[in-house]
Amino acid sequence: MHAMRAMPKHTRRACLFVKVAYLLVFYLTQTYPLLFLLAVAAAPRDEGEQRLQTKAIICSSAEPQPTRQDGQVQMHKSGEREKNKTKQVTRHCSHLYLSIYKAHWTVDERERERERALAMAGADDLKVLGLWTSPFVIRVRIVLNLKGLAYEYVEDDLSNKSALLLSSNPVHKTVPVLLHAGRPVNESQIILQYIDEVWAGTGPAVLPRDPYERAAARFWAAYIDDKVKSAWLGMLFECRDEGERAEAVARAGEALGTLEGALRGKPFFGGDGVGFVDAVLGGYLGWFGAVGRIIGRRLIDPAKTPLLAAWEDRFRAADVAKGVVPDDVDKMLAFLETLLANYYSK
Ligand SMILES: N[C@@H](CCC(=O)N[C@@H](CS)C(=O)NCC(=O)O)C(=O)O
Q1: Cα(134)–Cα(143) distance, rounded to whole angstroms?
Q2: pTM of this prediction exceeds 0.70
Q3: Among 175, 192, 233, which is best to mutate for testing ligand 1, by the most ligand atoms less than 8 A from CB?
Q4: Could you give the domains of the chain?
Q5: What are 88-117's pLDDT values in tens digits?
């Protein structure tokens, strides 16, 4: 202390500078080679490890990093071969050790999750208890199709409900029921969300990822099962004469007019593809066809709701809807007749 204080000011500054420079040189010579060697040791050598390299590249930066194969292709001139190779490995390794941590905990984790979901999708047995005309069953089948999940479909007879239906949904005794590895999930909108959560890494997302967008999708789905459902019941099952039917058709038109606003600017409610709200509304389209035949015009009127009418055409043509959304109007009307005959005979 005493000796330091005795030194002139500029000598003390010089000492400090030397110390800092020494520490800097020590750090660069000791730490960088160590990290470099670790990275070389971790560099991919076989096909399995190659995946890690790809993941590291995906994670790290916008600039694409050359792969080993790229490097080999570029090494034409024999004199530059070794130089290029060293440069290549150096760039690769320094890039690799910086991104190795991220790669393990982001892409790798997501991929593991996806692999788990795929394994489950193959291994689990999925069964839907349903009724072919039910809007609630149809939406579940649409979402299973969307996710690309295989399932067994079991048509239930609602005039003589199966023991499996009664024991799987003892509260409401309604279809759909989704049985996932034997465990029942009830209520169609809950089933859709369950599928989206369990198979989050499989196929497209059913609900939007953004919480605000997700809340909006749930809002519209609830709106549909409030306003559209009550109009659907009114148009087909609860009306006692054509006057009451017309009143229910008008209510449906009002609700559809409101939905036209929610669709503005996108081909589907879910954006570029079918999503939660599309599946919820799309489940009713079979019955809308039947109503159309009864009232002599399309229920989703292209003159009043052109966006929704175009959506209907797009939705019916989508692969996920094929074979699930009924398009045989005669068959729907025959089903309606039997249902009403049974209903009124009780
Ligand atoms: N809120 C239920 C409605 C289900 C529903 O009403 N299903 C009808 C078929 S369209 C049913 O099972 N009805 C039998 C009954 O009510 O006894 C859902 O979304 O799953």
Answers
A1: 15
A2: no
A3: 175
A4: 2-110 (no CATH), 124-206 (3.40.30.10), 207-346 (1.20.1050.10)
A5: 444 443 443 334 334 444 445 555 555 555
